[in-house]
Amino acid sequence: MPLLAAHVLLRGGPPLLAGALFLGCGGDTLLQVGGGTVFLLGMGSFAAGHVCYLLLFARHGSPGGARTYRLAALYAAAWLTVVVLLWPGLDGELRVPVAFYSLLLTAMALGATRARLLSGAGGALFLLSDTLLASGLAEWPQAPAPQFWVMLTYIAAQWLLTQGVLLCHGGHHVCTEEEAGRSPAGPSTRRGSGQSRTAARASTMPKP
């Protein structure tokens, strides 16, 4: 993520976006160190990054409408379902922090739908990535190479969120509902590079 954050700064992107990416990098580093309190600090770093994204989407996103309310109901139902299913398998000290973190993550993903289509897709992938990670913490059966899928969805999520914000920020205007649902017509922006999240998240996966 540091390279992607540097890409944002070199393009003159919003500092909040670079901050969200650096906080994600900090979260990765803390997850790599170990569990317990350090894991909670890593979760807190990611949560702070989601707050940065929420502020960005409040600034650049379109006004809420019927579409936003429908998506809010859908995302709220998804959050509640995942928390209820994960709750029994999580360690006692992780249950409440995971519930609050996932609520903030869901709010960020919903906010992303108010900006570009790329951002909405990035928010949804971030939800998927952290749900895959949480399923490992709850000791659910895992698909082959779970760390690969967590890493892939996470990096794709950060890249999509970044490109969506840069597209809105580049025009210095609020994205309308029509623009939010339309793919950009111009040339693609350069792809930033992301550091692998495999090692950081693999350390949190339960051992067989």
Automatic annotation (TrEMBL):
- Residues covered by region (Disordered): 177-208
GO terms of molecular function: hydrolase activity
InterPro entries annotated for this entry?
TMEM86B-like
Cellular component terms, GO, for this chain's entry? membrane
Source organism superkingdom: Bacteria
Residue intervals passing through the bilayer: 34-56, 68-88
Q: Report the membrane topology from the UniProt record.
A: Multi-pass membrane protein
Where does it localize? Answer: Membrane
Keyword vocabulary terms for this entry: Membrane, Transmembrane, Transmembrane helix
Q: Which PANTHER family match?
A: GH04784P
Q: Family, per the entry?
A: Belongs to the TMEM86 family.
Protein name (Swiss-Prot/TrEMBL): Lysoplasmalogenase
Organism, scientific name: Streptomyces luteoverticillatus
